[in-house]
Every structure is written in C-alpha cells, then in structure tokens.
Design goal:
Blueprint: H1 2-18, H2 21-27, E1 32-39, H3 44-54, E2 62-66, E3 71-76, H4 82-91, E4 95-99
Antiparallel strand pairs: 1-3, 1-4, 2-3
Length: 113
C-alpha cells in the first residue's frame, strides 16, 4: 500500500513535464457566471427540460434555480451569449430576463501606516 502511494506521487510529480502548454491551459479554465430572473412559477419538469436544453451551450455548465427568489444562476467554462439562453428558455415556456451581477469592490490587502 505504501509503495503504491509512493509510485502514484512520483507519477503525479512527472505529469507536468509530459503535458503540453495547451493541455495545461485546458486544466485551468476561466469561469463565466450569468444570472437570470425567472418570471412566474416553473415546475420541475420544465426546469429539467430547460437545464438540458441550456447544456447544449456548454456541456459542463452548472445551473442552479432558486424558486423562492425566482433566480437562476448559470456557471459555464466558455463564454455564452446570455440572450441566446433567454431565447432557448422561451421555446420551452420559461421566461428569463438577464440580471447584472454586482461585484463587491476589492478591499486593499495592505494599508500604509
């Protein structure tokens, strides 16, 4: 068991030497976040259909629908046209409108005295 751990550790240390720069860039990918307001109630069946349809934009996307707040959050790993997602959802009877994501300003990490 200990030998297996040592071998696995040695292989993982050698991995970056064998990967090309392109492969390394694919491991470190940028996240894209989108928020939508859902108009009206959305039933579980419509939610499932819309999520499956939206996954056509990016198969690795994560969709979170918060029904009490009528909010849908989408996380993708490639840029997606938000208006195109609105159009696709409308084809299944779900009305979405884009929301602007408010980011808090960064606080200074160091202060001069």
């Amino acid at each position: 068991m200990r030998i297996t751990g040592i071998l696995l550790g040695a292989l993982l240390c050698q991995l970056p030497m064998f990967m090309s720069a392109q492969d390394m860039n694919q491991l470190i990918q940028e996240e894209h976040r989108y928020q939508f307001t859902v108009s009206g109630a959305i039933d579980p069946q419509a939610e499932k259909i819309v999520v499956e349809a939206l996954s056509g934009f990016d198969p690795r996307m994560h969709v979170d629908i918060d029904r009490p707040y009528n909010l849908m959050k989408v996380l993708t790993y490639q840029p997606v046209d938000a208006e195109a997602m609105v159009v696709v959802a409308a084809q299944f009877g779900v009305t979405l409108s884009t929301r602007r994501i408010e980011l808090e300003p960064e606080e200074p990490k160091f202060t001069e005295q």
